[in-house]
Amino acid sequence: MKKFTFIKNAAIITITTLLLRGIGMVFRVYISNSIGTEGMGLYQLITSIYFLLITIATSGFTIAVTRMVVEEINTGNKKSVNALMRKITAVSVMVGLASAALLYMFSDIISLYWIKDERASLSLKILAPSLPFMSIAACFKGYFTARRKISVSSGSQIFEQIIRVGIVLVLLMHFSKYGIAAACAAIMIGDTLSECLSCLYLWIGYMADKRKMAAECGNKPGRGKILSRFFGIALPISGGAVLNSSLRTVENIIVPNNLTKYNSSREQSLSEFGAIKGMALPLIFFPSSLLSAFSTLLMPEITESKSLKQHKRLERIINQSMHLCLTISILISGLFTVFADELGQIIYGSSEVGFYIKVLAPLIPFMYIESIVDGILKGLGQQVSTLKYGIADSCIRIALILVLLPFTGIKGFLFVMIVSNCFTPILNMARMIKVTGIKLKWSRILIKPCIGIVISCLISKFGINILNGIINVPVLIIILIGASAATLSYMGFLYIFKCLPSIKKLRELKKG
User: How much is the average pLDDT of 32-45?
Assistant: First the structure.
């Protein structure tokens, strides 16, 4: 039954994330066409400040609730779970309100002195009321992850995205003609209202499941003081996340400023920044939804395996997760590298975005594996290590930005991203191997797949060039035919050399 629940939840998250990211990708293209690359640059700066406050309001809550509820369920204690949710939710409300007050009161100062663009102030004020609702929602999401009832969290995300898109589409049609500031404000109204309604959706789901919890669990005593346990888990995660997010926010703010020192144009700097952060990177991360199911579900499984001292099961989970992640990410990396120009043209109508995709696409395996390994380490209680690596990474990025960008411009920023996206995943992976003592079969999960994707993409590109020489093929057809041919060739290569992840073994993730 547990095995079926894991597979069902993985399928739910995968389908939900694909749907949400698909809608979000189309929506982002619409926004970029409405407000332009300069508007996307300003939008990214606003959201970088917003994400910092989101981190303050929510970080630590989801992970702490997930781990604590899993532990309480294993003891069969219903009263402790209910008390746990009441107390932690009360803390989340206070933290969310404090974060909202900070954002609202200092929005003018942030816009003038940090972002250095007064057009951001109204958008920041509009976003402030969403923070308490996001903080509460983080607790509910942790609860449903621990309960293995992912359908409620997934439903809330779909509901939230539909509301956001609907509101923004209506408002942008009326406000985009008044300039970038009004257009960004319209987008933020949609964000705030959708977050509030999503929280309400989760609360209704929680109240319904609360009754089922009473029938399923026993009456054993709780495992110590709730808040002391909560803060013991949440504070290292929260403190690290806030510090890491602060450094990333500083980075996002200083990038356009230092680009301006190079090209002497604020508008061009915002456009280049928006093209990378707001257009190229979201497209690169879009396929990672195929892996987000495992990233989300790994933590309670690993926490449970560690709690029950099931070392063989823990090793099996980590091995299969790493194998699956690398197999998929190497394929996606190859496809994005080979068809970067075509993707930039057909999606954004921009050769500039296509160039950025081509430069960053080889980093996709590092980008994707980082989220998997990060979830594994946090499930093992290694959040302090991930914190140290994240802080070190941000400090290196900021230092390189300050040194390189005034003299090298956007090329220097791309170099910084290459260094950063290799640095953190390697450190996290080394820590995971050290803590668990597992041995990964690098030839099977990395070296042979890399050889396979290079051969497959060369064959695909060669075939496309021959086809183009015979007839004039539309760009979309080129991408579809080429990607399909490369994928089939890659999978065939892996099958021949016995490098495909075993479906049977993936289904065994839930066995003790």
Answer: 85
Q: Measure CA 324 to chain center.
A: 18
Q: Could you tell me if 479 and 346 are in contact, meaning their C-beta atoms sit under 8 angstroms apart? A: yes
Reference 362, options 454, 434, 300, 294; nearest CA is 454
User: What span, in angstroms and rounded, lies between the C-alpha atoms of 357 and 200?
Assistant: 38
The mean pLDDT value for 484-500 works out to 90
Residues written for the chain: 512
Name residues whose C-beta falls within 8 Å of residue 83's C-beta, 6 or more positions apart in sequence: 222, 226
Q: How far, in Å, CA of 440 to CA of 438, rounded?
A: 6
CB atoms within 10 A of CB 392: 14
CA angle 173, 175, 177 (to 5 degrees): 85
Task: State how far Cα 452 lies from the chain centre.
Answer: 27
Q: Are 187 and 172 in contact (CB under 8 A)?
A: yes
Overall average pLDDT of the 95-108 stretch: 94
Alpha carbons 107 and 114: distance in angstroms, whole number: 10
Res 144: pLDDT: 86
How many other β-carbons are positioned within 10 Å of the β-carbon of residue 160? 22
User: Is the pLDDT assigned to residue 512 strictly greater than 50?
Assistant: no
Task: Return the structure tokens found at 256.
Answer: 């356009």
* Closest CA relative to residue 432, chosen from 505, 352, 377, 358: 377
Pick from 148, 458, 457, 159: nearest CA to 332? 457
Residue 215 confidence (pLDDT)? 56
Alpha helices in 147-225 (DSSP H): 150-175, 180-216
Q: Measure Cα distances from 512 to 28, 312, 313, 435, 508 in Å.
A: 43, 8, 6, 20, 9
What is the DSSP secondary structure assignment for residue 339, as one 8-state letter? T
Q: Which residues pair with 77 in a beta bridge?
A: 219
User: Sorting pLDDT into bands at 50, 70 and 90, what band is 193?
Assistant: very high
The gap between the terminal CA atoms of the chain, to the nearest Å, is: 12
Instruction: Please determine, for residue 127, whether its predicted confidence score (pLDDT) is greater than 90.
Output: yes
* Percentage of the chain exceeding pLDDT 70: 87
Secondary structure of the chain: what % helix, strand, coil (to 5)?
90, 0, 10
Would you state the structure tokens that stand for residue 238, as one six-digit string?
Answer: 């929260």
Look at residue 470 in the predicted model and tell me its pLDDT.
78
Q: What is the pLDDT at residue 316?
A: 78
Cβ atoms of 185 and 121 closer than 8 Å: no
pLDDT above 90: residue 199: yes
Which is higher by pLDDT, 79 or 408? 408
At residue 381, what are phi and psi to the nearest 5 degrees? 80, 25
**Angle, nearest 10°, between helix axes 2-58 and 180-216?**
130
Give the HSE-up count for residue 288: Cα atoms under 13 Å, Cβ half-sphere.
20
Tell me the pLDDT tens digit for each residue of 437-450.
887 888 888 899 99
